[in-house]
Specification:
Blueprint lengths: L7 H18 L3 H6 L20 H21 L7 H15 L1 H4 L7 H9 L2 H7 L4 E4 L15 E5 L2 E12 L6 E7 L9 E7 L5 E6 L10 E12 L3 E2 L12 H33 L15 H28 L5 H31 L5 H9 L8 H13 L8
Parallel strand pairs: 1-4
Antiparallel strand pairs: 2-3, 3-7, 4-5, 5-8, 6-7
Helix pairs in contact: 1-4, 4-8, 4-9, 6-8, 8-9, 8-10, 8-11, 9-10, 10-11, 10-12
Bound molecules: flavin-adenine dinucleotide (FAD).
Length: 403
């Protein structure tokens, strides 16, 4: 028999994240929706990841690393629910509170996922403490990430980076940017590599912030690189241009896409919970013992949304779990992102409609969640791009064969 309940350790993590979302994010959710670009001071208390400094802290960190290594060895060959599974469960709960605020928690950026997916153990040691954003998108490149124009060339012991990156989540608040650049545009996607660029690197210029429809608590920045210099070993992975590879790009997306799917699941859950609460006050109760023929249209719609939500959630947990268990999950990562992105948009907007004036009014958060959810079907690959990736995998076609 399949048990679809969360095991105790994940359930504990879920409850902890929900408690944080309820106590910290919800009360300030509207405040930072209205004050775009203001830093959510209340989040400073969450700190961020700090590099150990004193001898005692260094010893403690070393002991923890040894414990983690021993646990990983013990778990070799076993089925595990690791960091990725726990991550999606926690992210969904935090985004039930507020997705823009979750993206503003200091120390945890999309670039950190790239570092943990692709960095060498030595680089993880050096950069693991960073608060890293991820800079892929350019004025002339979005979905077509293999077409990047930002360049990196090796000069002595340094990489010199030139180009412009737009729509960088946490681009102002982070201390480090993971920048995608090409070593040789004529060599195609095999020449695209990612670089760890500290914000104070010479030649990095912060240009400005976007004004947005949703996710207004989260900063979205433009950054320019004008002969920006970073040390030679700040490249993630190998500098070798090997045809057929894509510089760790897919490994990064395999981790970040389920995370974005989890964000959509969290926002959709928030909308469903509030809608059910508001409708219950109007006498609409869900009764799973009653057959669907004897349900009202509105009850049937709520059942349908609950079923869609659960399908998205289960696909997302599966994709993250596969990653924890070292199973190739590119197709499942795209599947869950496509499903959760679409379902998140559908549920949040339908909840606005079902609650009518209460849904549209700024007195409640339903209208905000509908605005916040839109981007979750766009960034880290749009709906159409995810479906394209799934189709390529199912039909065994390359990106050149199926565009
Ligand atoms: C709030 C916000 C935060 C963001 N954060 C980040 C970030 O942190 N880092 C980062 O690098 N980027 C970020 N982005 C950028 C985001 O990832 C891009 O917007 C996204 O990849 C789409 O690119 P585009 O906007 O250039 O659209 P385009 O690629 O121009 O696409 C436009 C439309 O065409 C469709 N389309 C494109 N190609 C195909 C195809 N082959 N088949 C079918 N349909 C297709 C797309 O699905 C889309 O609907 C962010 C964007 C926003 C708005």
């Amino acid at each position: 028999m399949i048990n679809l309940e969360l095991p105790p350790r994940l359930e504990q993590a879920r409850q902890g994240s929900r408690a944080m979302a309820e106590a910290l994010f919800r009360p300030i959710s509207r405040k930072y929706d209205l004050q775009e670009h203001a830093y959510p001071e209340e989040l400073r208390a969450l700190g961020g990841v700090r590099r150990p400094k004193t001898a005692e802290e260094i010893r403690e960190a070393e002991a923890l690393r040894e414990l983690a290594k021993a646990k990983a060895k013990q778990d070799e060959g076993k089925i595990v629910n690791g960091n990725n599974t726990q991550g999606v469960v926690s992210v969904a709960e935090m985004c039930w509170g507020d997705v823009g605020l979750m993206l503003s928690v200091p120390g945890v950026g999309l670039g950190n996922a790239a570092i943990s997916a692709v960095a060498t153990p030595e680089q993880k040691e050096r950069f693991g403490h960073c608060y890293a954003s991820m800079a892929i998108t350019e004025p002339s490149t979005g979905s077509d990430s293999a077409n990047i124009s930002t360049t990196a060339r090796l000069e002595g012991d340094e990489w010199v980076i030139n180009g412009e990156k737009i729509f960088i989540t946490a681009g102002e608040r982070c201390d480090t940017v993971v920048v995608w650049a090409t070593l040789d545009k004529s060599a195609g996607k095999a020449a695209i590599k990612s670089f760890i660029v500290p914000k104070d690197a010479p030649g990095l210029e912060f240009v400005g912030l976007e004004n947005k429809l949703g996710l207004r608590a989260s900063d979205t920045a433009t950054i320019r690189f004008d002969n920006c210099r970073v040390p030679k070993d700040n490249i993630l992975g190998s500098p070798e241009i090997k045809q057929g590879s894509f510089g760790g790009v897919m490994q990064t997306f395999d981790n970040t896409r389920p995370t974005v799917a989890a964000m959509a699941i969290g926002v959709a859950r928030a909308s469903l919970d509030l809608t059910r609460e508001l409708l219950e006050k109007e006498g609409v109760q869900l009764d799973y013992d009653k057959d669907v023929w004897h349900s009202s249209a509105i009850q049937a719609e709520l059942y349908r949304m609950e079923a869609e939500w659960d399908a998205a959630r289960l696909l997302t947990i599966k994709a993250a779990w596969m990653s924890d268990n070292k199973q190739a999950n590119s197709m499942e990562a795209s599947m869950c992102k496509a499903k959760a992105g679409r379902v998140g948009n559908y549920i949040t907007l339908r909840c606005v409609e079902l609650c009518n004036a209460m849904g549209y009014s700024k007195q409640d958060l339903l209208e905000k969640w509908a605005r916040d959810s839109k981007i979750l079907d766009i960034f880290e690959g749009t709906q159409q791009i995810q479906l394209l990736i799934v189709a390529r995998r199912l039909l065994n076609k390359s990106s050149a064969e199926l565009k």
